[in-house]
Amino acid sequence: MGQLGTGPFLLVGHSWGGPIIRTVAASMDPARLRGLVLVDQTDEHCGLYFEESSAMHYARMNTLLPMLARTGLYRVMGSKPGRALPADVYKEHRQEDFTMQAARTMVAEGRGFLKDLRVLRDHPLKLGGIEVSVISGTLISWMERKTRPALNEAHRQTTSVLAAARLVEAMYSGHMIMYSEPRLIADEIIRMID
């Protein structure tokens, strides 16, 4: 991050991006950070990730995703929430984010996902007094009926163990808060900058 200047930086991460930016933050001089915004992050406090059924689910997805991309079903199924984006951005999203290369990238990222999450659980990151906003989608859809309550509880636990954290509930969102409540994310960024 030295190439970016002295900072201070405000890092924002959604889903798996949450653990990624926390890992980056833990390795930085805290004086170079303004804060972190974790948007419905993947959370090591969620025990569901460590059940055998989760390992089987992610293994299936790693096989299924390239097949869905090859047939075009990945684009049809995955791009629907992005319709909230401006038309030009949505067009690029559909063209670039659901290709075979995108599917291969997701599979490569997913290979070490559970192992990396276990490391975070067993060796918690030290963030000191870095300000953190944990934005948690609280809308429970049929697809997330089992995982959403467990993930919300994990987000509450993460907030409670960090020295300078606050929980922000996204009442009208599940996982894709950036599509359903982008203003909530922007407000947290602005609040930290101010």
Describe the structure using short key phrases:
194 residues; alpha/beta; Rossmann fold; 4-stranded parallel β-sheet; 51% helix
Describe the structure.
This protein is of the alpha/beta class and 194 residues long. The protein has one domain (2-193): Rossmann fold, CATH 3.40.50. Helices cover 51% and strands 13% of the residues. The protein has helices at residues 17-26, 52-71, 73-78, 87-96, 100-111, 113-122, 147-161, 177-180, 182-193, and strands spanning 9-14, 33-39, 132-137, 165-170. Helix 2 (52-71) runs antiparallel to helix 5. The longest helix is centred in the N-terminal third of the chain and has 20 residues, at 52-71.
Q: Rg to the nearest angstrom?
A: 17 Å
Q: What is the oligomeric state here?
A: single chain
CATH topology: Rossmann fold
Distance between the termini: 23 Å
- Side by side, the strands of the main sheet go 1-2-3-4
Largest β sheet strand count, sense and barrel closure: 4 strands, parallel
